[in-house]
Amino acid sequence: KKVLVIHGPNLNLVGVREPNIYGSEGIEYINDCILAHGKELGLECDIFQSNQEGAIIDKLHQAREIYDGIVLNAGAYTHYSYAIRDAISAIRLPVVEVHLSNIHARDAFRHTSVIAPVCAGGIYGFGKNSYLLALDALKELK
Ligand code: DQA
User: Fold this and answer.
1) Which of 26, 38, 41, 55 could form a disulfide with 15 if both were Cys (CB 3.0 to 4.6 A apart)?
2) Residue 142: what pLDDT?
3) Residue 56 maps to which CATH number?
């Protein structure tokens, strides 16, 4: 199986950004862990990061032809982007929503995910392991 991992806005700054919330491991290290875990599972993983909503939507559209599933951390877009939600619905690929932090233990505006209803499922609150658990889930998905 081929899997695309998408990091949305501000995730390029993980490690530097609010380390008390997001941890002190940088995005390169997280990406190394994703690739290593993917390899263990026999999944071929590509990783994409963008701070732009449209770029994430374009990538989701292109993924339709190439991948068997997607791991998506849409960052703050999670909470209000109907455009990303519609893109997920449009491509009909299983998308696993992930977050480093426990969004339900934080600001009220983070308690809502407008993408959750169109995702296969979601994993949040486990730091980089949220991504690794999402790979486990996609591997098992029929
Ligand atoms: C996040 C949670 C979002 O609320 C926030 O806007 C982010 C990161 C997470 O991974 O915990 O940028 O998606």
Assistant:
1) 26
2) 78
3) 3.40.50.9100
Distance between CA atoms of residues 134 and 106, nearest Å: 21
- Ranges assigned E (strand) in the chain: 2-7, 44-49, 69-73, 95-99, 121-124
CA-closest residue to ligand 1 atom 8: 75
Question: Count of domains in the chain?
Answer: 1
**Residue span of the structural domain in which 36 resides:** 2-140
- Number of the ligand 1 atom closest to the C-alpha atom of 22: 11
Q: What is the DSSP letter of 119?
A: S
22 is catalytic: yes
3-class secondary-structure state, position 23: coil
- ipTM for the complex? 0.99
Mean model confidence pLDDT for the chain: 97
